[in-house]
Amino acid sequence: MKKSYAVFAHKAEVVLVFIFGILFVSRTLCAQTIPSDYFRSVISGNSSQTNVWESSHDRISWIPSSLTPTSSAAGINIISGTTVTIDVLLDAKLLTIDVGGVLVNTNNIVFTIFDDGTNADDFVINGRYELYGTMPLYNGSARVMVHSGGEVRINDNNGGQSDNFLRDTHLFVETGSLFNWNTSDFFQTDNVTYFPNATATATDKAIFRISKNVGTAGAGSVTIFNCKFEVASGCTISFVSAGAKIFRDGLGGAGTIVHTPTSGPFQITSASAVIDGTLAIILQQSNGNALEIISGAVVDISGSPTILVGDATFPGASLYIGGAVIHNGATAVDFSYGSLVVDGTLLGSGMFTSSQISTMTVGASGTVGPIYFTPTKNYLKTLIVKGMMILGNSLNIVGGNPSGMIQVDGAFDTKNFLTLQSDINGTAWVGVSSGTIIGDVTVERFIPPKRAWRFLTVPFSSSTQTISQAWQGGYLNTSLACANNVGMSGFDTHITYIYNRINGYDKGPQNNPSLRTWNTSTTAWNNLSSTNVVLITAEPAYCIFIRGDRTVCMDQGVNATPTQTILRATGILNVGDVTKNFTALPGQYIFVGNPYASSIDLTNILTRSIGIDPSIFYLWDPGCGLNGCYVSYLSGVTAPVTNNYQTPASTLIVQSGQGFFLKVNAPNPSILFKESDKTSLQASVFSRRAKSEIHIELLSSVDQSVLDGTAAFFYEIQEKSIPKFSNLFENIFLTQFKNNFGIEARPLVQKSDTFIVSLSGIQEKEYTLRVFTNIFFKEKKNARLIDKFLSSEIKILGDTLMYKFSVSKDTNSYKHRFMIVSDTIVNPVFISTNIVVYPNPVGNVLYLQGSFDPNAVMYVTDASGRIIQKTKYNSGINCESLSPGIYFLKIKNKTFKFLKQ
C-alpha cells in the first residue's frame, strides 16, 4: 500500500508540472502588445523606439513592448529616471509624467492630446515637460494638469508656441507647479493672460520663473500672470511699455526685475500673495505708481527681497498700497528716491528706508503701523496722514528749501519718535491740519553763527522738559575753560547767569543773564531763578542771548568765535485753533510766541484777536547791528528796513519758534490763532538768503564739452570754501593766498572784487573759457575778464562770456593767465517772500524775479510820491534816466525803497 501510494503521488506530481507548463506556455504565447495596453518608459530614448517602452494589459505584468503608444492606449507613463523625446507624430491620452520623469517635446513635431471622454486629466505632469517652440494640439476637451512639484520647462520659443501653451484654456495648475522660462527668447505680453484657469485659491497657484536673461518684455496692453512671477539668480528682466503688468500671486526669486520709466504699473491682486526670496525689484518711474497692491490684495513680504522705489537716475516712483501689506522681510523697503502711498493697511516689523526727498501719504482709509524706519536713513520731505499712522521708531521731517512738511487730518501717534528738523536753508513745519497728533514731537530751530539776542518760543501745548533739558541739552558747564565744555557740537547753547551748580545756569564770564522773560505789568525783562526747574512751556516766549553751540569758549568772552547751532525742545504740538489769553491793561505790551510748528501770517490774526491794536507790533531782527535790533511796524510802515525785513509784507511772516510784541488796547486781550494762518513762507530772520554766484568753466574748443569747472559765491554770514580735488588732466580753480579752491566762498563787499583763475594739466591746443552767473549777479558794472598773457580785457556782457584761447609750452600762457574783476556785488533783496529785487543801490537796471500777477502795475516814485515811471510787471526796470537819489518801487501793496547811484 505504501509503495503503491508513493507511485501514485509521484505520477500526480508529474501531471501537475505538466499542466502548469502548458498554462505557462499558453500565457507566454498570448502576452503580446496591443494598442489598448498600458505603456510605460523603461529606458531613455525617442518616442518612436519600441525598446523605450514596456506594455501591460493589467498594469501588473509588464513585457517589452512591440508597439509605441498612441491615443488608443489605456494609459502612458514616463517613469522616474527616464527621458523620452517626441521625435515623430504622437497622439496620446491619459499620459502621465511621473516624478523624476522627463518628456521632451521637440520643435515642429505634432503632439496631440486626446480627451478620454471622462473628467480625468488627459496629460498629467508630475515630473518635467520640456518645450522647444511647438505646443501640443488638443482633441475635444482634453485637459493638462501640472501638479505640485511638476515642471514645464521652456528651452526655446522658436515657432512662438511655447508661451501659447502657458496661456491655453486646456491647461490647469496646482499650487507649487513650476513653469520655467529657460530661454532668452521673447514671450508674448500684449493683452495676454497666463494660466487663465488659475483662480487664486490656495491650491491653484503656479510659479512662472525666468531662468535666462530675456531682456525686455511688455506691451501697450495689459499682461496678466495668474501666478507668482519669479526671476532666478543671475537673471534680469526689464518691463517696458504702458500696459499694466499684473503679477496676481506676487513676486520672488533671486534675480532682478526692473520696472522701467516707460512701463505701466506692476500690480499684485491676490488676497494671499507674497514678495519673497532675495529678488531685487527696481521701480523706475518719474511720476506715478510703479508697484500697486490693489484693494483687496494681501501681500506678505518675507525672506530678504530688495524693493527700490525709484533710483537716482529715475526718481519719483510710488509704491501704492490699496490692499494690505505685512512686511516682515529682512531687507528694508527703500523709497529714498520715491514715495509710499497707503490707502489700505501696512503692518509688520520690517524696515523702510527713506531720504531727505522721500514722501509718504496715508489716505483717509489707510492704516499704518507701527512702521519702522532704518536708523540713520529715516527722513521724509513730506508726510500726509489722513487716516491712522503709528511710528515704531525714529523719523525725521527734514528742513531745507523748500522745507519738509507734515499734514495730519487723521490720527498720528508719534510714540515720541518724531523730529521736525531745521537747518540753514529752512525748518520743517506742520501744514494746515484738522486731525490729531498724539505723543511728543521734537522741534528744532537752526540759529546762524552770530552773537545776538533772539525772541524764541516753542510750539507746544505741554511739555515735561525744563529749559535746561531742552535748550541746554541737559548739560551744565562748571568752568569757563573751553576744554571743560560739555555738550554736543552743533546743538544746544549756553545759558548763563549767577552760577551756583544748582540753578542750572552755565558759568559765564560775568553774572549777566542770557535768558529773560517779559513782565507785562512792569514792562520790563525778568530773570529766571533757574533753568532746571522751569518748564520750557512756562512762558509764551523768551529773550535769549545765543553765542552758538556748547563748544563756544566762554573764557574768551566777546572775542569767542560764534558758531551755528540747533536748539531742540520736545512736547505735545499745538494743532487746531489756539487761543492765548493775557492779563494786561491798555497801553501795555504783551510778549507772544508763535504757537505752531509753522510760519504764520499775522494779517488775519491782528484783526481777529480781541484787545490788541492791529496796527502795531514789534519784531526782533538778530541780524541787525551788533546783537540785533527791534523792527517796528505801524500801519504798514516798518523801521528800520533791515536785510531780513525788507518790506512791511515780510514782517507779517512770523516763523516757527519766533516771538513778537503786541500792544494792548483793551483789558485782558485774547489772541486767536487758526490753522488757516499757517504759511509755507519762511522769512529770512533765521534762514538762508539767496547768493550771487559766478561760474568759470574750461571747455574743449573742438566740441565745446566741459573739461572742468570752478565757482565762487558770496556770503553775509561766514561760510567755508572747499579745496580743489585735481583731475588727471585739465584743471581749473580759483587761487587766493596760495590756496586752491574748487568752490570759493567770499564775503560780500561793497567794492570791486578780483578772482584769480588758475589752470593746470593743460595741453598745447585751443580751449574755450566760459564765464556765466546766476540771476542775482546780473548787475555787473564793468565786470571784465583780464587776459594777462595777451594784456587784454574783455567786458562781460549779458549772462555768459565765451572766450577762446590757445596754449603754448610757456606756462605763462595758462598758469595764472586769467583774472575776473567785478565792481560792487550785491546779494538779492526780498521785496516779499516770493519776489526778489536787486541790486540796491542800482546802476542802470533794477531786476525782479519771482511770481506775481502779470497784470499788476509797477510804479517808480520819488521821495515826494511823484510817479516817475508806470509799467506792467516785468523782470527789469530801466533806471538809466533816473538822477542819483532815493526812489520807491510799488507793486500793489508791496513797496521797496532803493537808491540810484
What labels describe this entry?
single chain; 901 residues; mainly beta; 11-stranded parallel sheet; 5 helices; 87 strands; 6% helix; disordered N terminus
Content-based structural category = mainly beta
Query: How large is the count of helical segments?
Result: 5
Arithmetic mean pLDDT: 88
Amount of beta strand: 35-45%
For the secondary structure, the number of strands is 87
Radius of gyration, in angstroms, nearest whole number: 41 Å
Overall 3D form = elongated
Work out the helicity level: under 10%
Unreliable spans: 1-29
Question: How far apart are the termini?
Answer: 158 Å
The description of the largest β-sheet is: 24 strands, parallel
Please tell me about this protein's structure.
The protein is mainly beta and 901 residues long. The N terminus is likely disordered. The protein is 6% helix and 42% strand. Among the domains are: 126 residues, no CATH class; 102 residues, no CATH class; 130 residues, no CATH class; 72 residues, Immunoglobulin-like (Sandwich), CATH 2.60.40.3080. The strands form 13 sheets. It has a 24-stranded parallel beta sheet that branches. An 11-stranded parallel beta sheet has the order 18-21-24-27-30-33-36-39-42-45-50. It has 5 helices and 87 strands. A hairpin with a 2-residue loop joins strand 63 and strand 64. It is elongated, with a radius of gyration of 41 Å. The termini are far apart.
